[in-house]
Design a protein that fits this description.
By secondary structure, the protein is α/β, with parallel strands linked by helices. It has helices spanning about 5-20, 60-75, 90-100, 105-110, 130-140, 250-265, 275-290, 300-320, 325-335, 345-365; strands at about 20-30, 35-40, 45-50, 80-85, 145-155, 160, 195-200, 230-235, 340.
Length: about 375
């Protein structure tokens, strides 16, 4: 099972007492929940691990616990620091699912994800208290590496980097039966120096799909020029995202995905649900970009967009609490993509191995 915020805090406090580390409050959330930083080790260089930035992606808290235990036993030349959960308010709204069973339908019945302006890693005009707390930690530590732990609902494992560093994707091996995401729509148009690795563009460069509000160049990932890795692992693995062969008819597939996205959202109203309202406003422009774009040419890239065409209406249905729509969308996903549940321990171990490999690569890169 995934760890909840309270479970992780309790374990972190015990680990800090036993290992000579510290657990300190670095701020509080918009709703007054404390934000905690666990620090372990005495190395001169620092690794900062951030969990829980996206409320619907709980794997990072479990991964943090694995990494913290490893750091307490063998820091590997670094001081390790863990923001245990950057969005505890959002995490609390998803926690009912964590009590199980961890089915797809229950996940989306208890799903919460704020609109972009409410996600603390984005540097909006009005900075959230969670954002300010994280920026303060980055400015204090000047970490050699920041790792932001994320999860995708359907797809494969991949890493987004602010600069080239070899080694992050190597722990994502076939032995885990989790595909590398070789054409992630989250990194459309970004360079990919190795399979499963994507380089974030600098300011002014093309930023994925233009209609989307997120901007990697204006995020906590790039603050002070810190080296950051955003490490993604899937809840449900989809084989097609790892197929880098040419798609037989990408233009037709993208047109079909765009039509599907429009059809699924036609007539849906989301008054009073900010995240759903934002999605409904962006979806038509996104579908237009898919149709006229030149990015998706491989099976992996097309599969990633086809998954997005299913995911977006499903998240709208989840935000609106529409149980019949959730059930229908989940059934369609199973039929079209045969997603395979990745056990929580496997998700966390895979993510932890990638972070550890990245830290070793950065240490050797000094």
């Amino acid at each position: 099972m995934y760890l909840t915020v309270d479970q992780l805090i309790d374990r972190a406090a015990t680990l800090a007492r036993r290992s000579g580390g510290t657990l300190r409050r670095i701020g509080e959330s918009a709703q007054g929940r404390p934000l905690w930083l666990l620090s372990l080790g005495a190395g001169e260089r620092h690794v900062l691990v951030v969990a829980g930035a996206h409320a619907n992606e709980p794997v990072g808290m479990t991964t943090s616990w694995l990494l913290a235990r490893q750091a307490a036993a063998q820091p590997g030349g670094f001081s390790w620091h863990f923001v245990l959960c950057l969005d505890p308010d959002g995490a609390a709204r998803n926690e009912e699912w964590l009590r199980g069973p961890l089915t797809m339908e229950r996940h989306f019945q208890h799903f919460y994800r704020p609109p972009a302006a409410g996600q603390p890693e984005w540097l909006g005009a009005e900075r959230l208290p969670e954002t300010r707390a994280l920026l303060g930690v980055i400015e204090e530590l000047r970490p050699a590496l920041q790792c932001s732990l994320h999860g995708v609902d359907f797809g494969g494992a991949f890493v987004q980097l602010t600069r080239p560093i070899a080694g992050f994707s190597r722990p994502f091996g076939s032995a885990d039966q989790v595909p590398l995401e070789l054409g992630s729509a989250d990194a459309a148009y970004w360079p990919s120096p190795e399979p499963g690795l994507y380089l974030m563009p600098g300011a002014g460069a093309r930023e994925r799909f233009e209609v989307l509000p997120e901007d990697a160049a204006a995020s906590t990932w790039t603050h002070l020029g810190v080296t950051t890795a955003v490490v993604e692992v899937p809840m449900w693995a989809v084989t097609g995202v790892g197929d880098d062969s040419p798609h037989p008819d990408p233009a037709a597939a993208l047109q079909a995905a765009a039509r599907r996205l429009r059809d699924r959202l036609r007539g849906v109203r989301a008054y009073g649900h900010p995240a759903a309202e934002e999605t409904l406003a962006l979806a038509p422009g996104l579908a237009d970009e898919w149709e006229r774009g030149t990015w998706a040419r491989t099976v992996a890239q097309v599969t990633s967009l086809e998954l997005a065409a299913e995911r977006i209406p499903l998240r709208v249905a989840a935000a609106l609490g529409s149980i019949p729509r959730i059930a229908g969308h989940c059934a369609d996903l199973r039929e079209r993509f045969a997603p395979r549940w990745v056990p929580v321990t496997q998700q966390a171990r895979l993510q932890a191995r990638a972070v550890a490999a990245g830290a070793r690569a950065v240490l050797g890169d000094a």
